[in-house]
Specification:
336 residues, 16 helices, 1% strand
């Protein structure tokens, strides 16, 4: 009995507790957003550059996104610590592996560091970014969205939308250090053209749908909520399919025809659609959770599809390769 008690109360080593707190496997979806945004805008500059032409700027943006995303996961558990103490006592904070005070300090410290790295990226080589300070501003807005979700809005009807906003701003963060801006006379907001905003908005709306679909994944879900989530996911994919119609000045289909992009999006969506239909027909926790996991995995493929359309095969393969560490880590570390 004494040995069993010791086993049950054994704490994770600090490094493992920290990785679990940050939901390390899901971090690679944030990287996919940054890589897709960065490759798309840097490749379509007048010199057709790639991310490797600006490695320090890219590294700064990846660090910024990693810190802000991980901070969001840490603060999520910090603000949920009382609920987790009842329902998930083995998690890092309720188990005592990481104290609540330390988690709060780590979370907000990472948000501040992420914003600083994003701002630094624009000033590594100031001539390579058209708006050097834009990354820092987007990172601040992204961080504010993270705090708003974790601390205030998580259990409101706005929660899925603020979660989608976090993905929207993460894509814009990847695009923030573009060397080329829309030409005069082209519609733009803060230097982002219609195509860029449509790409970021499509991913954002897709995540709204995923979050809506997953809201009651631990219990028998309401079929109406599942249908609404599926419709929102489809709407986000539809926005990605509308990219050829947007006629953007910076994001343009250089490597695929519109029909090629549409075909890829349809193929990528078939497996997810099958999962969603099964979950809607039989809304038990297992079916819903399998659909949510498939939707999160598909996010990397959608980022890769747009990268393929603009930049070609090599850069899209680099994004798809992120699935390898993600799936490997999921085998021994939870990601929800």
């Amino acid at each position: 009995m004494e040995e069993n008690s010791q086993t049950e109360t054994a704490l994770d080593p600090p490094w493992l507790a920290f990785c679990k707190l940050c939901r390390l496997p899901n971090l690679f979806t944030a990287w996919a957003d940054i890589l897709a945004g960065f490759f798309v805008v840097s490749f379509y500059s007048s010199e057709r550059l790639t991310g490797l032409d600006f490695p320090l700027e890219l590294m700064c943006l990846l660090l910024a996104s990693s810190l802000i995303y991980s901070a969001g996961m840490v603060l999520n558990d910090y603000y949920d610590r009382e609920i987790d103490a009842e329902q998930r006592p083995d998690r890092p904070i309720p188990s005592g592996a990481i104290s609540a005070g330390a988690a709060m300090a780590i979370g907000y410290g990472m948000l501040a560091a992420g914003c600083l790295f994003a701002l630094l990226g624009g000033f590594v080589y100031v001539d390579s970014a058209a708006i050097a300070w834009r990354g820092g501003v987007v990172a601040v807005v992204l961080s504010a969205s993270v705090v708003a979700y974790d601390a205030v809005l998580k259990r409101t009807a706005l929660a899925p939308w603020i979660m989608g906003a976090c993905r929207f701003f993460n894509i814009l963060l990847g695009m923030s250090l573009a060397q080329a801006l829309p030409q005069e006379g082209h519609w733009q907001v803060f230097g982002y053209d219609a195509g860029q905003l449509l790409f970021a908005g499509g991913i954002g709306l897709y995540i709204v749908g995923v979050t809506w679909f997953a809201r009651t994944e631990a219990v028998a879900s309401d079929q109406r909520m599942l249908i609404a989530g599926a419709i929102l996911m489809a709407g986000g994919i539809g926005m990605l399919a509308a990219l050829p119609v947007a006629q953007p000045s910076v994001v343009a289909l250089a490597q695929l025809t519109p029909s090629g992009l549409w075909g890829i999006l349809v193929l990528l969506s078939l497996v997810l659609a099958r999962r969603a239909v099964i979950a809607i027909a039989r809304p038990d926790p297992r079916n819903v959770q399998l659909t949510v996991k498939q939707a999160i995995l598909s996010l990397i493929f959608y980022d890769a599809a747009i990268t393929l359309a603009v930049c070609g095969t090599g850069w899209s393969v680099a994004i798809v390769a992120l699935l390898l560490p993600m799936l490997g880590l999921r085998r021994w570390m939870y990601s929800t």
